Amino acid sequence: MRLIARLAAPCLTGMVLAALAPLPAKAQQCGGGFQQFVAALADEAVARGHDRQAVNGFLAGVRKDQSVLNADRRQGVFQMPFVDFARRLISANRLNRGQELSRRHDAVFDRIEREYGIDRGVLLAFWAFETDYGAVQGDFNTRDALVTLAHDCRRPHLFRPQIFAAMTLYERGDFSPQRTKGAWAGEIGMVQMLPEDILEHGTDGDGDGHVDLKGSPQDALLSGASMLAGLGWRAHEPWLQEVTLPEGMDWAETGLRTKKPARDWQAMGVRPRHGEIAGDLPASILVPQGRGGPAFLAYPNFRVYFEWNQSFVYVLTAAYFANRLEGAPVFDAGQPEPGLSGEEMKALQRKLAARGHDVGGIDGILGAGTREAVQEVQQELGLPADAWPTRALLDRL
Description:
It contains 19 helices and 7 strands. The protein has helices at about 5, 15-20, 35-45, 50-60, 65-70, 80-90, 90-105, 105-115, 120-130, 140-150, 155-170, 195-200, 215-230, 260-265, 300-310, 310-325, 340-355, 370-380, 390-395, and strands at about 140, 180, 240-245, 260, 270, 280-285, 295-300. A 5-stranded antiparallel sheet has the order 4-6-7-3-5. The protein has a two-stranded antiparallel sheet with strand order 1-2.
């Protein structure tokens, strides 16, 4: 499930030195004939220091996979509002299974909490959402997926480095060009990590001398923890907390752009539904479906989720599920106003862009850019600026 949103961010630099190597003068970056592209890719790999025989072995039989491109263009699930998305992904079975696996792998979770300061609920939530605790890891040939997406000219700069990282894993004996399978976007294993991430953060948790993210929960969980720590996770700090908001809330102060010490929010009447507010930490108020829906206090660690996946609805759901796995109650869904359909959202995005607002693309998805633009235009029109787009707002524009 890490999919496109994670890949919209700059890739991690697992092969820093290799990335600095000069490219062949006529390296074909994307497009054109597929076989010519592969030949240029092989030349670049050799120029980066890979052995020619290993490169030929890695690329032998590579093919363009149309099903990968089809999956890349099919992202409708992220158009769902938070309440619906969360109810779809969080089931009693997933919650019970997570608690069972927490007990089964208690030693590795204790190690993660000791070494990285990351609560077990965080890793369990990723494990659940990415692969249903390892049960659904993807059936796409990883090598073919990466080469296909690098050949496609939508985001070649994101996928091309992953090919060379996968080559390094192959040379180490930890990747099979023919047999390694995973998600359509090239992620591998129980917590879905890209080859560069594996190079940088792969951890041999079970002590067998290899990093096996597909078959070893110990390897997968410790590697995921290392990656989160590398992305900036702050040890032993919270990430998200459901709250109730006071009457007379200034909705323009909600959203990730506004941060205050948590104690200041508390002084304004913000109250936790579970646990205690972390008064010393900066925090933002999130109302994913506007003033009528649920509300959350987002701490600094919440922003690390966006380094893993840039979909707001996915990130919020994963962070909330981590809370549930740690004992938090079911959120209060409230009574939010109905949102927009995908086509209505696109129409709204076009109208916002025409007014000079940066919505981050006309895709029908209520991402962070569109939310900020909605909040800005709500303020311009004198409406409650809760960043939740409704049909009334669309009609007003």
